[in-house]
Specification:
With 155 residues, this protein is of the alpha/beta class. It has six helices and seven strands, in the order αβαβααβαβαβββ.
Length: 155
């Protein structure tokens, strides 16, 4: 069976469960594997908007004042976070004050492990990183905390 369209994925259940347990969840993977779709599905479940940093105007506003965009008592969901690396420091500052689960869900295409500053910040945050991959038969996710891996496959 080939995954097509915007069909509801079983992955959203796994991601929602992890988000309820951890302060930061990062959806990471190559282009077109469905990170933005998965983030949108999570946002819909939570009744929250997605801040899309792929949009130039939004990116500019977020870059000008990242703290304003991450300061919230409600979950904050950010797509293409890698366009504004300063977001990670702003999130870290917020988490120094409040580590409750379900605070931030981020999605992006950058291989954060290849960018030492981002990798260190995500490790410091204790982020659960979800790496999505897709083949013709299934969509899989691998999860890790910071840069220390553990696996969870959903097919």
């Amino acid at each position: 069976e080939v995954l097509t369209g915007l069909a509801e994925r079983r992955l959203v259940d796994v991601v929602a469960a992890r988000f309820a347990e951890e302060p930061v969840l990062v959806l990471n993977g190559p282009r077109t594997v469905g990170k933005s779709t998965l983030l949108s599905q999570l946002a819909e479940r939570l009744g929250r908007p997605v801040i899309d940093c792929d949009d130039p105007a939004t990116r500019s506003a977020v870059r000008a004042d990242p703290g304003r965009f991450v300061e919230s008592s409600e979950p904050v969901l950010i797509d293409e976070y890698q366009h504004v690396p300063e977001l990670l420091d702003a999130i870290k500052a917020q988490l120094n004050r409040d580590l409750r689960p379900g605070r931030y869900a981020l999605a992006g295409s950058t291989r954060y492990a290849a960018v030492p500053e981002a990798a260190q910040t995500l490790t410091d945050l204790g982020a659960v990183v979800v790496r999505q991959t897709r083949n013709r038969r299934s969509s899989k996710i691998n999860m890790s905390r910071g840069v220390r891996p553990y696996r969870h496959n959903q097919s």
